[in-house]
Design a protein that fits this description.
Elements (H helix, E strand, L loop, with lengths): L31 H21 L7 H8 L6 H36 L11 H14 L5 E2 L2 E2 H21 E2 L2 E2 L1 H25 L2 H12 L7 H20 L1 H7 L3 H6 L4 H23 L5 H13 L3 H25 L8 H25 L1
Antiparallel strand pairs: 1-2, 3-4
Helix pairs in contact: 1-13, 3-8, 3-11, 3-12, 3-13, 4-5, 4-6, 4-7, 4-11, 5-6, 5-11, 8-11, 12-13
């Protein structure tokens, strides 16, 4: 038993199986500060490479001069500020938002296979984008077309619906959230199929391109649209990091440790939903970032969300930036949508992870 003056150490006393399969390492072999510094350095290096490579290479010296406001050729200035910098920053923002949301949901649901798209965001966003494309709406707001705006609205509507369906008696069960998300996603998929069947070839091509996920149309306006919501959602998740650590022990144990369980579930769900909805609205469906990055970092850093969430933000941004740079460089002049590339990279990892978890509980 715990003495009155002894601090509660989450997970230290629990067998691995009672931790629901999440890979837990009470004393990580790698220092968190070292990992964070390495991720930050790798992200800066990847950003320099992403600004450098392309149909017109921009050497690092000119990149630095352009960022510092020093004189550079007009073509270099245009390429750097109108094309590559918005795309780089949007890749970091989208990847970081998806990875942070995935890490928080895996802790909240106590399931290493949890993914941000369990929120139902992808289905709602897809319906919103499909409606904008089907109606051929060409209006703009603050320099942003209606496709990302309606995608964002559709994502939030789906999240609100799932939350309402899952809430009974003032409580929300994690299993109900997942089931409601699957059901709403199935309905949204049916709506998408209907719109494709009654639409023309233009709609089908545009919708398939959006569903593939990509950053090819990134602009400063897209960044301004998504950044406030991704940053706000991330801040909410980091604020509840300690409560997420305690939630890993189970809801009853967390409540005994002083956690307001229902409030934590509500705020974590809302924070992850907001961040994911904004990323999907501006980049389409980019899978597996929110699954792969948190899981790998949890193996290296342990379960503490106070370290895992910031590391996931850096790691997700790094992964998506590298994938996007490869997608637009290796097949030049053709460009492979980054969502396809992350799917090719993350699919085998997911199968390995699924096999590993099945073996853990059957062994």
């Amino acid at each position: 038993m715990r003495t009155p003056g002894e601090k509660l150490r989450p997970l230290a006393f629990l067998p691995a199986r009672l931790r629901t399969g999440l890979p837990v390492r009470p004393r990580p072999q790698t220092r968190p500060r070292t990992v964070l510094l390495l991720l930050a350095g790798a992200l800066v290096a990847a950003a320099v490479v992403a600004a450098w490579v392309g149909p017109v290479p921009v050497p690092p010296r000119q990149i630095l001069a352009g960022l510092l406001g020093q004189p550079v050729p007009a073509a270099v200035h245009s390429i750097l500020w109108r094309i590559r910098l918005p795309r780089i920053l949007l890749a970091v923002l989208v990847g970081g938002g998806l990875a942070v949301s995935g890490a928080a949901l895996q802790g909240l649901l106590r399931n290493p296979l949890a993914d941000p798209y369990l929120l139902g965001v992808s289905g709602g966003a897809s319906v919103g984008a499909a409606l904008a494309l089907w109606l051929d709406l060409r209006w703009e707001w603050a320099g942003v077309g209606l496709v990302p705006i309606l995608a964002f609205a559709g994502a939030l509507a789906a999240v609100a619906l799932i939350w309402g369906l899952s809430r009974t008696g003032g409580r929300v069960a994690a299993s109900h959230l997942v089931l409601a998300g699957v059901a709403v996603g199935a309905v949204c998929a049916a709506v998408i199929s209907y719109l494709q069947s009654v639409g023309d070839e233009r709609l089908t091509k545009a919708l398939l391109y959006w569903l593939a996920g990509g950053l090819g149309s990134a602009t400063w306006q897209h960044l301004r649209l998504a950044a406030p919501y991704v940053l706000l959602g991330t801040a909410v998740l980091i604020y509840f990091a300690r409560d997420l650590d305690l939630m890993l022990m189970g809801e009853e144990a967390a409540a005994q440790a002083g956690v307001n369980v229902e409030a934590t579930k509500t705020w974590v769900w809302l924070g992850a939903s907001l961040a994911t909805a904004a990323t999907v609205a501006v980049a389409g469906l980019i899978g597996f970032v929110g699954l792969v990055v948190p899981h790998i970092l949890r193996l290296a850093l342990g379960p503490s969300h106070r370290v895992l969430l910031p590391a996931s933000a850096l790691g997700g941004g790094l992964l998506l930036l590298v994938a996007d740079t490869l997608g637009r460089s290796l097949w030049a002049p053709q460009e492979l949508p980054v969502g396809i590339l992350t799917g090719l990279m993350g699919g085998p990892f997911f199968l390995w992870l699924l096999r590993r978890e099945l073996g853990r509980f059957s062994g």
